[in-house]
Amino acid sequence: MDKKPISISFANQKGGIGKSTLTILAASWLRYVRGLNVLVVDCDFPQNSIVELREREKKAVMKNDAYKLMLQRQFERLQKKAYPVIRSTPENAENDVQVFLTSESEPYDVVLYDLPGTMGTKGVIYTISLLNYLFIPMRADRLVMQSTLNFAQTVYDKFVGNPATNIQEVFLFWNMEDRREKTNIYDLYERMLGTLDMKVYTSRIQMRSKFSRELADTDGTVYRSTLFRSDGTFLRESGMAALMDEICTTIGI
User: Fold this and answer.
1) Which of 67, 83, 215, 223 could in theory staple to 31 by disulfide, Cβ–Cβ 3.0 to 4.6 A?
2) Rounded CA gap, 58 and 67, in Å?
């Protein structure tokens, strides 16, 4: 294959920050809204939550005629099947991706890596070095921010501008924003990030319980899914649509 896909990841060394959900929503946006060829590499061993979600969704579709019809109509509109999800580990990801892409007849546009939340996991640092763009979710919590800033500083120091790595840009963004919180907390952190020359997106992902709702848990409205585009109103109100617009501008899509 001549065309090399853009490699990206939502990464943070703090667990529970929503990396896997963001990966799912981003991949679905790129595939089912923008019609791109997308590959998701689930390296978050051993839980491999995206692989497991795909399997649960397949079962949910088989039991629901409405979802079967939705899947058929989506294919007719895009002329594309659901994006593939492969199970891997950080140390094997590069080889697994190459094997997969070599076997495909069409070039891929984007590869998204879902990585473990621990930098010490074997292969994580090397896989990060292979990425073209890294997006770091933040949460306005002191413990979360301390860990996030340490991670972001490490990435900036070791990878950005290093000719031995592929990373072109790193952006941070607010995830799980609770609008009941004082806005000056965010302003304070952003001023601090500015002094560190770290780039922060303007869009913010709102706290929504619906982020965790799967096909089997809903009345037909799609929220988090690997097989379907999420509900448009949900994407706009949660801030995910705005975030994906910023990401697409960054990566040149």
Assistant:
1) 83
2) 10
